Amino acid sequence: MLKKITLIKLLPLCLLFLLSACGQSNELGEPQLTPEQVSLGFFEAIYVDRDVDKAKKFVSADIWDVIDHYHIASAVQRNVLGLSMKQVTMSIDEIDIDFFRKFTDDVTVIVKMQGLKGGQKWIDDRTIRLHKKGNTWIIVEILPEKGRIEG
Asked: Which single residue of 11, 15, 36, 84 has CA 20 to 30 Å from 119?
């Protein structure tokens, strides 16, 4: 009888452990990134780290080809994103995803950036669309600029 009670108590703990491990990392054991983390990772790679190769891991094959063509971060800023800036800080301004994020495969994220453009303080934003492929979010589109916020 004692063994039966012990097994009954251990079974929920084992199930809880297995469920908590499911879906939390990719095949390589790396943690899954949220759409917000992917978005900020991409822009930080381009504007802060100035590392195009680092930015490539966040984008689809089409965008990968485009940013690879420009080779350097300043060219990607100018020609792909249409915004050359230095000393940039960024944050998520808006995301069209809610509590049901597990049930959606497409999201739009607006990243707000503050920094220097031509030596002057500048605040602007860029909108990107992400798609979930498997358990990974990737940037599939950089939406056209809507206009300047502040300068």
From this structure: 36
